[in-house]
């Protein structure tokens, strides 16, 4: 059975809320009902059928053939199945996902993966600010699952993260892991100022020493532990990286002591 495919007919004239187009909610619905679902965010009453040509029948596997920075909340709330977007998406893609797979063959806007608790999000391009961060008033960010961004990420990636894995492969902005509670963040490439600021626990694993660290972190020496080798093998097995990140006995910096934190920043030891 072919995937249920939404072929974009033209660039939308307004921002769209695509949170209704997830496998969980489309299962068993006829195409005519899907085409009648409202996705607009203004009084014009834009429906799915106004913007997309719908083909295929397998609602457990969705494809958006054509993307737009006006596609907001793609994959929000999905718990199973898969979504593939050929193109860019707007903000809050994968918001509150609990399972399934979201692949974006392009770039994503702000708050990608906010509230993620399970499943996997993979972006081939860049991600905006506050990757995996909580919304205003929420107490924690990512609490499970995996996010892989193969390009760059903006500021405050992994803010208040509690559990799970975030990987960014071409660097990120300032305040990586701000207020982090637990979990693991991997970054290759340049990291902006003050990574780990106010972190309580968790691990930031980098391929180089950060340029600007908070003075409330202290040198922990070289960590001659089995973890680095095991984690390097895990990243390669999961096809997140193609070569070891930390190597043996990486340098370890501990903090943030401003909040009596027990987190760590580790990066490859200089020879």
TrEMBL record:
Keywords: Oxidoreductase. Its EC number is 1.2.7.12. Signal peptide: none annotated. It comes from the Bacteria. One of its GO terms (molecular function) is formylmethanofuran dehydrogenase activity. This is Formylmethanofuran dehydrogenase subunit C.
């Amino acid at each position: 059975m072919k995937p249920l495919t939404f072929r974009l007919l033209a660039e939308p004239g307004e921002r769209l809320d695509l949170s209704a187009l997830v496998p969980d909610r489309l299962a068993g619905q006829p195409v005519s009902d899907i085409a009648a679902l409202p996705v607009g965010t203004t009084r014009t009453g834009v429906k799915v059928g106004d913007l997309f040509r719908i083909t295929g029948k397998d609602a457990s596997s969705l494809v958006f053939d054509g993307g737009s920075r006006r596609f907001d909340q793609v994959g929000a709330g999905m718990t199973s199945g898969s979504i593939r977007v050929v193109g860019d998406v707007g903000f809050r893609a994968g918001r509150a996902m609990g399972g399934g797979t979201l692949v974006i063959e392009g770039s994503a806007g702000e708050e990608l993966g906010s509230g993620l608790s399970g499943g996997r999000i993979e972006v081939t391009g860049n991600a905006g600010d506050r990757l995996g961060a909580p919304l205003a008033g929420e107490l924690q960010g990512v609490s499970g699952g995996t996010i892989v961004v193969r390009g760059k990420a903006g500021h405050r990636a992994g803010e208040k993260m509690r559990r799970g894995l975030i990987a960014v492969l071409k660097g990120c902005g300032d305040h990586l892991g701000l207020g982090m509670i637990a979990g693991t963040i991997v970054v290759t490439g340049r990291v902006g100022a003050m990574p780990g600021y106010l972190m309580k626990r968790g691990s930031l694993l980098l391929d180089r020493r950060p340029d600007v660290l908070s003075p409330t972190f202290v040198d922990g020496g070289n960590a001659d532990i089995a973890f680095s080798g095991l984690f390097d093998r895990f990243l390669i097995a999961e096809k997140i990286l193609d070569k070891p990140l930390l190597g043996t006995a990486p340098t370890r910096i501990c903090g943030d002591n401003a909040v009596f934190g027990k987190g760590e920043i580790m990066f490859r030891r200089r020879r």
